[in-house]
Structure formats: structure tokens, C-alpha cells
Automatic annotation (TrEMBL):
The protein, known as: Ubiquitin-like protease family profile domain-containing protein
Basic and acidic residues: compositionally biased ranges: 60-70
Domain of life assignment: Eukaryota
InterPro entries named in the record: Nep1/2-like, Papain-like_cys_pep_sf, Peptidase_C48_C
GO terms, molecular function: cysteine-type peptidase activity; deNEDDylase activity
Domain named Ubiquitin-like protease family profile: residues: 16-208
Length: 294
């Protein structure tokens, strides 16, 4: 990818890059685009990796720290990965499709765009997300649960089913399981404008990482528990979803815009390394995007 002078790369981190036009989607009254989500996903993965590496301090060897960093799956998948997943499921078997995707941890946040709707109504102007939760028990009925969080329900209900069916396919689970494994989370506060939808997805992912939430709090431990709670949002997720408010989404937009704008300016002046790969490097050279106001 060339650094087009008309739309130059202004921030580089890990495998992601943020272009000038990407950064502009964090300005007021703009829809978040794929570039911002991708870069934010890379930052979250780095934060999680640094946390895992610090927990391995007791083992202390450089190899242990590197193993912890390398083995941490990304929580938030980038939109291009979900696009690929949805496009290959009709032609590839489960294992072949899965091998094209990043490893899935016990929790995965899947971006859902309205353009995935089979009803043909989406134009790529609305984001929601699915929190995919791997079940803790084995045997009949085991697999994954999906919890759809949409700040403009039921706008993306059909698109969410498409994404969830594709994800189940890559796990070797029949699409007939979609109805009994995908649930709507009603505790999400409706957005108050037409453009903050994508911020809800970033906010959810940020809260999961920031609070070091254990996946076990989102999932049943037996088939009996799964059946008795079918259709119900786990209490931990209800609590988390209630924190997804218009005010917090708006504040995250401000925080990320200021953070990436400062990073871009300092990178242009040569005050920070051209390409950083760890959250520690980012904090030391740029700072932290997390505002105490949230």
C-alpha cells in the first residue's frame, strides 16, 4: 500500500495504519470507518498482550513474556476480517475458512455492518457488534453464544444473523443453530444521533479490556444452565451494556480524536517512533486515550 499524498498515512501501529481521511471520521457528526476500528483493535490487542506479559513477570524469562504476547488473541476483529469471513463461507469448509481468520479467544467482538443484511437495505452506514462467547462446557449443545448489541435496534438484526451464521460455520457449527445461539441485548441505550453507532462497539471492547473481565462471567457452565437461561442476557453483560451510553460514546469520540491527532502531529514532527508495536511504547511516547471523564 502506497502512502498517497492525497490521503497520507498519519499514524502507524502494529499492522494497522490510520490515514488522514480515517482520522476525519472521528470528527463530530461523522460515521466511523474501518480504518479507525482496525487501528483501535490493534491498540486493544497490544494492551491485552502487555497485560498478559506483565502477569508472566513471575516466570520472568524473555521467552515467557514473548509467548504471552504472541498467544493473546485479538478481542476486536477488524471489519475486513468479518467481510472475508462472510464472503468465503459459501465456498470453503469450516477448517479452510477458519485458517484464513485470526485465532479466536473465548471472547470475540465481531463488527456488524448493515451492508451484511440479506434484505439489501444496508448501505454501510450503521455499525453494531456481536460479543461471541465460547461456552465453557463440552458435549452436546456446546459451542458458542452470540450477544448482539445494537444502539439502533432492530436496524441490524438481519445483518447480525448473517455474520453469526458465518462465524458458526468457521467453528464447524450448522447455521441452523443461529436462532438458539444468537440473542439481542436490550440494555444498550439507544444512540441520540445518526453517527455514533461505531463508538458503542469500541466502548464495549475497551470496557472488557479495561476491567480485565474474565470470559467465564459471560457464559453458562453446563447445558442445563444454557437451556434455563436461553434468551437471557448474562447479568455481567447486562451491567456492561448499561454502561454503553450516548454520553460515554460521545466522550470516546473526543478522546480518540484528540489522541490520534496528537499522535499524528508528533509523528509528522519525528517526535515519536515511526512504527510502534506495544502499548507501553504508545503510553511512553504519546500518552493514553482513556479519559477520566469516562
Amino acid at each position: 500500500m502506497t502512502n498517497d499524498d492525497r490521503d497520507p498515512i498519519v499514524v502507524s501501529f502494529g499492522d494497522a495504519c490510520l490515514r488522514k481521511e480515517d482520522l476525519q471520521t472521528l470528527e463530530p457528526n461523522e460515521w466511523l470507518n474501518d480504518g479507525v476500528i482496525w487501528t483501535f483493535a490493534e491498540l486493544l490487542a497490544a494492551r491485552s498482550s502487555d497485560s498478559e506479559a506483565s502477569q508472566s513477570q513471575s516466570r520472568s524469562s524473555d521467552k515467557a513474556k514473548q509467548d504471552a504476547k504472541d498467544s493473546t488473541p485479538s478481542l476486536l476483529w477488524q471489519p475486513a476480517v468479518v467481510e472475508l469471513m462472510c464472503s468465503v463461507t459459501a465456498d470453503l469448509g469450516a477448517e479452510e475458512a477458519r485458517n484464513l481468520l485470526p485465532p479466536a479467544g473465548p471472547l470475540v467482538v465481531l463488527p456488524v455492518s448493515d451492508r451484511y443484511s440479506t434484505e439489501g437495505l444496508g448501505i454501510g452506514s450503521h455499525w453494531s457488534c456481536i460479543l461471541a462467547v465460547e461456552q465453557a462446557f463440552k458435549g452436546p449443545g456446546s459451542g458458542w453464544f452470540g450477544f448482539h448489541l445494537d444502539s439502533m435496534r432492530p436496524c441490524n438484526d438481519d445483518a447480525a444473523k448473517t455474520v453469526w451464521s458465518a462465524f458458526l460455520h468457521t467453528r464447524g457449527i450448522k447455521s441452523s443453530s443461529v436462532k438458539r445461539s444468537l440473542f439481542e441485548v436490550e440494555e444498550v441505550s439507544p444512540q441520540e444521533n445518526a453517527h455514533d453507532c461505531g463508538l458503542y462497539m469500541l466502548l464495549l471492547s475497551d470496557l472488557i479490556i479495561s476491567q480485565h473481565l474474565d470470559p467465564v462471567i459471560f457464559r453458562p457452565t453446563s447445558m442445563a444452565a444454557a437451556l434455563s437461561n436461553a434468551g437471557k442476557t448474562p447479568p455481567a453483560l447486562s451491567s456492561l451494556a448499561s454502561d454503553l451510553t450516548p454520553a460515554k460514546a460521545a466522550q470516546l469520540r473526543i478522546d480518540l480524536h484528540d489522541f490520534f491527532s496528537s499522535w499524528a502531529q508528533r509523528q509528522q514532527l519525528g517526535e515519536v517512533p515511526l512504527r510502534m508495536t506495544s502499548w507501553k511504547e504508545v503510553r511512553e511516547n504519546v500518552g493514553d486515550y482513556r479519559s477520566p471523564q469516562r
